[in-house]
Amino acid sequence: MLKAIMGAGGFALPWAFARLGLVGGGVALFSSAALGLISIRELAALKRQTEIQQNMVGATYVDVARVVLGEAGAVAVYGLSIMCSVGVTSAYLAFVASTLQSLFPGRSYSHCLLSAAGFVLPTTWLRDFAMLSKLSQSGTFAVLLGYLVTIQSGSYAQANEPLATRLQGLHSMSLGPDSWQDLAQGFGPVAFLFCIHFLLFPVMTSARSSATPGKFVQLAAVAFLSAGMVNAMFAYTCLALFGSRVSSIVLNDVGQGTLYLVATKLLLCADLLCSYPLVFAAGREIVERSLFEPQTYPSSQKEALKDSHKLPGLTNMGRGGEAGLLVEPKRCGLRLLLVAATVIVAQLDFAAILSLVGGVAQVCLAFVLPPLMALRLLGSIMGRWRLAANLFLLKTGVAAVSFSLFAGLSSN
Predict the structure, then answer these.
(1) CA dihedral for 291, 295, 296, 301, sign (positive or negative)
(2) DSSP structure string for 219-245
(3) What does the pLDDT look like over 300-321, one tens digit per residue?
(4) How many CA atoms lie within 13 A of 195 on its CB side?
(5) How many CB atoms lie within 10 A of CB 156?
(6) Which of 86, 150, 250, 342 has its CA at a distance of 20 to 30 angstroms from the CA of residue 374?
(7) What 3-state DSSP class applies to 126?
(8) Which residues cross the membrane (predicted)?
(9) Tally of CB atoms within 10 A around 163
(10) Taking a C-beta distance cutoff of 8 angstroms, is the pair 136, 278 a contact?
(11) Closest by alpha carbon to 53, among 373, 286, 309?
(12) What is the distance between the alpha carbons of residues 224 and 372, in angstroms, rounded to a whole number?
């Protein structure tokens, strides 16, 4: 869970906090963590209840949605999972392209984007992702190193300025968002980091802590609190160093500098390029099964969703598969089209992608569907406080999705 939270989206948090305000940014971040824990508790209960009712082991998100909401709920989970997969990989490409452009100012953003897409396209044709999965394990280290380098470089660049001058930008910032559009835009990157619930079912299935009631939720609380504190300190520090006009990728606000700064940027790009085909596989697996294996789709939905929740470093995706490249023309062609789709979405600003994907798809899977299913399946046995918490979570999720959709459509 720490690896899933500590991702490239963290570099957009200073930009998000600049829109949410000094107090609003912290409130949004830790509220998302707290509401996320409520949602995790409900998902764990729903998973257990579904496995008991259906006499099954390893129930997935789609299994729960089908039992509680019917086939429409299962289809909704599939669609939102595809949106998460395409959106996250598009954000990866946008981050890499922007970072490469900062390293090579003579290259246009489009050129850097197409170069990154040309690199990852062959990796989507791989049959076995074992090596890429191992390389992506360095992701958390790369992100933390990027945080430290950003703070160190920003501090060095402003070393000659008095502390009062550096803090003046913070004093001029409002405590909360200036408009509800700013609220929606700023909330997106926060949700992108903390609404990781779409991958928790395979984690709960494989985690030994799930055998003890409440243990998994306790460990999730540690992960969410730790990640929340680190990301909050990074966001506020960067606001003090770079001011309210910080860009959507704060690392790119650091000027051309030392060799280790360049090396850190390249390490982050390499990590995302290795992670791209692993996250990409989540969405394309669902599409390929629906297009090329319609006769086996109903019986393989459990297996398909298990793949759709995988993120790099959390699974052994591809292990035991055949080595080499895929040679089926129809599948290669489909993957080419899906990569092209991520390139098209990556034309949007990095922060805009985070706002749409995090504020819409991930919030639906984290703050809307879990309380809705819990109220429908377990509402009759809930206590007063648990019932109130789920109702509040549902209303908050619907409002966040509505705000994010409006902000995304009005800004494009």
Answers:
(1) positive
(2) HHHHHHHHHHHHHHHHHHHHHHHH-TT
(3) 334 433 443 443 333 333 333 4
(4) 34
(5) 13
(6) 86
(7) strand
(8) 20-40, 75-96, 183-204, 216-242, 262-282, 336-354, 360-379, 391-409
(9) 9
(10) yes
(11) 373
(12) 23
